Each structure stands twice: as structure tokens, then as C-alpha cells.
């Protein structure tokens, strides 16, 4: 009984860590570029695939994939920002959502064409195999590592954005890009780098997720829906809110899976409806 | 443009619609009509009210399942079953709309998407929906007790009549004082508020109307194709209706139908190519957003206006 409960809670924590990473990336991109990056799920999927392809075709080990896959996806993201997203600046942000939706279809279709529907397993790297018995539950080492690493990256992002000079530029850019430009900051470059960074963050989550889930072309599209709900629940205002809400939603899903499994995929959206009833701006959001 | 020309144009379209099943495969034509109605209903929100709903598949799909169930298990006549589905979609629209219109813009899109996902998961989980297989073997029945819908042309004209009714309703709504208020909200919401309009109520009414007509389209689709499937509640369907509207021209009366015709034809034509359909649909989407946001009918209209005003805007 307790074994199962803690097992589900821990699984929830892992999911929550990925939700937190992904909604954090969405928040960063939305904050500066005013773009809801629908392609975030596809970028997550591409990260996982990049790791899998690297291992299968080139023998790139997990440790390097953790670095190289986000870099590759980040570069693709920067190219997309330069060539496409830039043309939509100043228009209704809805066009950004639609554009990235179209890109998602292209990416998913291409991977589906190349690899079909069946998933691939990414082996857990040797140095993270095994687990520890904590008495009340069995803790697989890789999963503990996935949660720890994701949270560390989340906190690092939070620190950079809220506490450093670079973060101050970013925050200034979200308030008033024109003014920031007048101070001599290369704002267009900042936009490109931010989008690339957000895409890389999604890809990073994908690499960390690869040994936990199946690597499939559609793995991103199911996650991104929940992440959107997380964003609505948390409100897109704060970085900290994204992290806390992501983890909370993951844990809630875990709890529901323990008590009543069929409801676990629905509970997020029910919570979303309830939060909207009480606080339309989300738990941590400001009206804008 | 001279009014008489417009009237003749409409009459020609009406006749073309009547003659369609003699020219093309009736099931294809009915599919186009259903999705054209769906896109037109969606356009009431996006094109005339400025609300991007990213979860309209929920209304189409929920109604398709309800209609199918009423036909297959309760043995209701098709017109009653379709109306039942329509009513369910409208009720769903009222519930979701009341919550979603509390936020606007991007948030509105994400909230509607979230609710649609809720419906999707419910359809997957509920015991009577057939799960992955969908609801199959729906009988078409006899419309009004005497028209056998198993005859493809009779079925077509049944769908065509329902399409015209729904389309006319939307057309009336758009060109009524109600529609003008919706456009005022789209152009400048604070101004509409300061003029004393209860903006939330107008938005909600538009949402319910749009959801209801989407439900009509979904119910007809279930009757015509004789099944309701998960793809009707999936978010790809919600994206597809955005594409139809954008491609044809949002904020134009005919645009969504033109877009639906093109998208259905494209998918039909490319069906054998497997996942390339998705890739090409995505590419068309990107091209629409980046290069021609007015859509086909929007571009043509702009061209016609320019030629009638002698180049002046």
C-alpha cells in the first residue's frame, strides 16, 4: 500500500519535474517574445530523438547527449526565430501560436514518416543503473537523478533570471524592448538567443526523459497539453510559479493515479477549470 | 460591388451545391459540407469576435458521439439525434465558454485547448465510446420518417439542407446588430465596454452559438460517415479548423467553406502518402501565417474592392 503510494508519488514528481522544465521554457519565451511556443512539445520530442539517434547511429553516450542534443535543437530554434517568427513581430501574438502549431505538424509528420508510431527505448546509462531500497519504497537511481537534475536546472534558470544582470536585461526586455534597445542592447539578438535557449531547455527535458519514457514522434504532443494547463493554472507571470505549479500538478496526477487511475489524465484539466473559477489570472499570475 | 451581382453569385453557389452529388462522390461532398459548416461556426468566433478557440474539436466530436449513440442505441430518427447532439454541444459551449471568456487572447486559446483535452480524455475513458476504435456501425435511418438516408444523394440533400440552415443562421447573426457588436468587440474591446455593451455576455452568446453550430456539423458528420472517431475530438482537428478558416480567409462569409473544401480535398488527395499529409498541412499552415494572412477569399475581396474603387483603398 505505502509502497504503491510512494511509487506513484515519485512518478508524479518525475512528471512534475518535466512539466516544470517545459513550462519554464514556455514562460521565458512568452515573456520576452510574446510567443506561445506551441512547438515546445515538438522540441522536447526532438531532444529525445536527437539523444536516441546520437546513441544509435553515432554511439554518442548519454552524458554528451545531455549537452549536444539541446545545442542542436537550440540552433534549429534560432534558425526558426530568425527566418519565421521574426516576421510576425508586432502582430497579434495569436499568429505566433498558429505558426508554431504549423511547425509542430511538420516536425511530428517528418519524424512519424521516418520512424513510424512505435516507440524506441533509450537505455539507462551504466553509471545510473540500479537503485536504492529506502524501506518505504524502491528508488531507481536514474529517476532520482532525473528529478534532481531537472530541479537543479530549474533553480539555476530562476537564479539567472531573477538575480543576475543578464536576467535583469531579460526582464527589462519583457517590460519595454524599445527602451532596452536605446540603452545599446542588441534586442533582436537577445530575442534569437532567448528562443534558442527555450528550445534547448525543452530538448534538454527530452533527453532526460528519454530513458524514462518511450521515444516516439508523438511524445511531445501529449505532454504539451498538460504543460499548457499548468501554465493556465500557474499564470504565466512568474518563473517560480511555473516551477511550483509544474511540480504540484505532477504530484497531483500521481496521487490521482493511486486513488483512481482513470481520472489521472483528466484531473489537471478539472483543476484548471476550478482555478479559473476562483482566480482567472492563475495562482501566481498578474492580470495583463 | 453592385448588389444584383452578389445575389446572382449566391444563387449560382446555391445551384452548384444542389448539383454537387452528380459531379463528385457524395460522401466526399457531404464531408466537405460538414467541415465547411464547422469552419463557418468557428469563424464566427475568430473572424468576427477576435477569439481564437483552440478546442473546437470538443464540440464537433462530443456531438458526433452523442448523435451516433442516440441513433445506434436509442434508435432515434436522424433529425432528432442530430438536434440532440447540437444541444449537447451548445450546453458544453455554455459551460466552457463561461469559464474561458474570463481571459482573452493567448490564454483564451490555451484554456479552450485544455477543456477540449478534457473531453478527449473522457471520450477515451468512458465505457460506451468504443475507446480507440470509436463508435462504429451507426445507422443512417430515415429522415422525417420517410427519406431513406442510405441513398447517398438523399443523404446529401439532407446534409445540404442542414448546412444551409446552419450557414443562414450564422450569416444572419453576423449581419445583425448582434454581429456588429461582436465586430466592435474585435476591433476595440475597451471601447465596446465604454459604449455600455455587456461584452462578456455577447462573447458568451457568440461562443454558445458557435459551439452549437459546430455540434450540428459534428452530428451530421456522424450520420453521414456512420462512425464517430477519436480524431474528431483530437486537438489536430481543432488546429485543422483554424487552418481552414485562415486559408479561406477569416472574417469573410465564404472563406471558411473555401478553406474546408481545399483542406478536405488536399487530405483526400494525399491520403495515400501517410504522414506526408501532416507535413504538408503544417507547411500550408506556416505559409498562411507568414505570407498571406488574409486568406484566399480575403485576397480576392481586396483585389475586387481595389478594382471597383479604382486603386483607392
UniProtKB/TrEMBL annotation, chain A:
Keyword Cell cycle: no
Membrane topology: Multi-pass membrane protein
Transmembrane segments: 16-36, 48-73, 93-115, 136-161, 189-213, 225-252, 258-278
Principal subcellular localization: membrane
UniProt keyword list: Amino-acid transport, Cell membrane, Membrane, Transmembrane, Transmembrane helix, Transport
GO cellular component: plasma membrane
InterPro entries in the cross-refs: ABC_transp_permease, BCAA_transport_permease
GO molecular function: transmembrane transporter activity
GO BP: any one term: amino acid transport
Source organism, top-level taxon: Bacteria
Compartment(s): Cell membrane
Annotated family: Belongs to the binding-protein-dependent transport system permease family. LivHM subfamily.
Protein name per UniProt: Inner-membrane translocator
UniProtKB/TrEMBL annotation, chain B:
Transmembrane segments: 54-74, 80-99, 106-128, 155-174, 204-229, 241-264, 276-296
Family matches, as InterPro entries: ABC_transp_permease, LivM-like
GO CC, alphabetical: plasma membrane
Superkingdom to which the source organism belongs: Bacteria
Keyword Membrane listed: yes
Molecular-function annotations in GO: branched-chain amino acid transmembrane transporter activity
Keywords: Cell membrane, Membrane, Transmembrane, Transmembrane helix
One Pfam family from the record: BPD_transp_2
Membrane protein topology class: Multi-pass membrane protein
Subcellular location: Cell membrane
Keyword Transmembrane among UniProt keywords: yes
Protein name per the record: Amino acid/amide ABC transporter membrane protein 2, HAAT family
Origin species: Anaeromyxobacter dehalogenans (strain 2CP-C)
